[in-house]
# Entry
Amino acid sequence: MENALLIGLSRQTALRNQLDVVANNMANINTSGFKAQNLLFEEYMMPIAEATEFEAQDETLSYVLDYTSHTDFSNGSFRTTGNELDLALEGEGFFVMQMADGTEAYTRNGAFHLDADGQLVTSEGRPVLTSAGPVTFTREDGIIEISADGTIATELGVRGQVRIATFEDPQALQKLGETAFVGEEAQVPAGTRIVQGALEQSNVDGVFEVTRLIEITRSYEAVSKMLKDADELRQQAISTLGRIQA
# Structure
C-alpha cells in the first residue's frame, strides 16, 4: 500500500506542476510575443526494495516524472497598432536584445519604445540590437521607417538594420522571464519579414487551456480519491491484524 501512496503522490506532484504551467499560459494570454508551454511526462520505472529472501522476482513500480517543458513556437496572430516602433515577425526567428551584462537574449515581443535617452528598447527597457548595435534617435530623425528586411531609415538616412536570429533547435533555448530566451549558435533566418506598426499576439489558445485546466482538476481529484481509498484499506488491515491473536 505504501507503493500505491508513493505512486499517487508522484502523479499529484506532476499535476501540480502542470497546473502551474497552464495558469502561467492563461495569465499571459494577452502578452505580446508570449509562447505557450506544456510539460512533458515520462514513465519512471523503479524496482521495489530488494527482498532476496523471496524466490519471486521483484516487481517494477511505475512513477510519473515531469522531466522537461515544451514551448510552442508557432506564430501568434497579428494586431495592428499603428505605432511606428511596434514590430512583428512574419516567420521564424527572434528580435535580438542586449542584457545588462552585455550578453544577448531573444524575444518575439516587438513592443518597442524610446527611453529617456532616445534609445530603442524593449518593453522591459533592454536595448534592441541592430547591425550597428544599440540605436539612438533624436528629434532630427523625424519619422522612423522600418522595412520588411529590418532596415531602419529616418530623415537623417539609414540608421542600421534590426537584427533577427534563429536557432536550429528552438527547444534548446532557455526561458528568461515571460517572453525572453537565451541560447547559443544564433543564425540569420531566411524569408522572415518584419511588419511595422503591428504586434504578434500570444499564441495561447484560451479554450484549449481551460479544457486542460478541467482535465488536470479531475485527474487530481481522482488521484486524491485513490489515495484516500488506499489509506482506508491500510487502516482496515492494521485494525484487522491487531485483533488477530498470536
